[in-house]
């Protein structure tokens, strides 16, 4: 796999919780029939994981065939490669950015929720107050790779208006998708990603 960025190839920034991992007691089998349950450990806590192999195999195939470059942009940070990659059947992916480490679960349902709670306590919120670390990661990417088409899948985008507005102003070639966290990426959203990648592959 080439590590040099190709300005013609879309860059997919992939979140985990609420995107690949459905944050639900029992995910909706009307969305995916092949849900699988697993666990993964980060920051000393074991987290439940619900994922669809249809989703993860699509991510792997698009990345490995060179149609899109996938990078993690998730609270899991480097843990995604250590703890989730084998579970999901994914190749090792570059990490676009990492949050502060969390000290524990804080009664959260997912690793992402735990980080969000801790960041909220420490920094008073996300974008608009002290900055959202994921937007800062995107801004670094845009500075170094200004021509790249960007796909950003993150369930938090619905609540991060300033981040969305920044991307809409500065990234003319983009696809932003914010799944419902209890569903993750749906078949319709996955089709939109494949179609977007196909447009640039031509």
Write the layout of secondary structure elements.
Blueprint lengths: L10 E4 L21 E7 L2 E7 L1 H12 L4 E5 L5 H10 L5 E4 L13 H13 L9 H12 L5 E4 L7 H10 L3 E4 L9 H15 L1
Parallel strand pairs: 1-4, 1-6, 4-5, 6-7
Antiparallel strand pairs: 2-3
Please describe what this structure looks like.
This protein is of the alpha/beta class and 202 residues long. The protein has one domain: Rossmann fold, CATH 3.40.50. It has six helices and seven strands; from the N terminus they run βββαβαβααβαβα. It has helices at residues 53-64, 79-88, 111-123, 133-144, 161-170, 187-201, and strands at residues 11-14, 36-42, 45-51, 69-73, 94-97, 150-153, 174-177. A five-stranded parallel beta sheet has the order 5-4-1-6-7, sandwiched between helices. A two-stranded antiparallel sheet has the order 2-3. Residues 121-130 have low confidence and may be disordered.
Concise synopsis of the structure shown:
With 202 residues, the protein is of the alpha/beta class. It is 36% helix and 17% strand. The chain has six helices and seven strands; from the N terminus they run E-E-E-H-E-H-E-H-H-E-H-E-H.
